[in-house]
Amino acid sequence: MRRAGYDAGFKLGHRREVTAILAGNDDLAVGVIRGIFDSGRRVPEDVSVIGFDDQPFTEFLRPARSTVRQSFPALGRTAVALLQEQFDVSASPRQRAVVDTELVIRESTAPPA
User: Fold this and answer.
1) Is the dihedral of CA 11, 59, 50, 69 positive or negative?
2) What's residue 103's pLDDT?
3) H-type helices in 1-67, by residue range?
4) pLDDT at res. 42
5) How many whole angstroms from its chain centre is CA 53?
6) Where are the domains positioned within the chain?
7) 60 C-beta neighbours (distance < 10 Å), count
8) Which residues have a Cβ under 8 Å from the Cβ of 1 and sit 6 or more positions away?
9) Rounded CA gap, 81 and 93, in Å?
10) Alpha-carbon distance 89 to 21, whole Å?
């Protein structure tokens, strides 16, 4: 997964119009940032990078990763509730559900230059 992030970061780093990347998870963001640096650009001075999940290690990397925090217990409860609805023939199951998230700003993001 980090290798895929690296490859994407390296390619996107060569595109000067790219100023921000939202990675699908924090592991991808690790690779993206390395790829950005290896393409000759800097994080966050040239490109802001945000991960997703707020894995415990993200705040200890340099630059500390900005991320989107989600509650895994809430996600699990919601998934179980949706699954239970599928078995209740008297109810019409929801097609989607929303779980709250929180943007955590750290060192890997900055306003565009």
Assistant:
1) positive
2) 95
3) 2-13, 26-38
4) 96
5) 6
6) 2-70
7) 8
8) 25, 27, 28, 31
9) 10
10) 43
Q: How far is CA 53 from CA 29, 37, 71, in A?
A: 11, 23, 8
Q: To the nearest whole number, what is the mean pLDDT of the chain?
A: 91
Task: Say how far apart CA 67 and CA 51 lie, in whole Å.
Answer: 4
Quick one: which of 12, 29, 28 has its CA closest to 66? Answer: 29
CA dihedral 78, 79, 83, 88 (to 10 degrees): 0
pLDDT tens by residue, 49-95: 999 999 998 899 999 999 999 988 998 999 898 888 888 777 777 77
Read off the amino acid at residue 110: A
Retrieve residue 58's tokens: 């993200």
CB 59 within 8 A of CB 106: yes
Which CATH fold topology does 2-70 show? Rossmann fold (3.40.50)
- The C-alpha atoms of residue 50 and residue 28 are separated, in whole angstroms, by 10
Radius of gyration of the chain (CA): 18
Pairwise pLDDT comparison (49 vs 97), residue with the higher score = 49
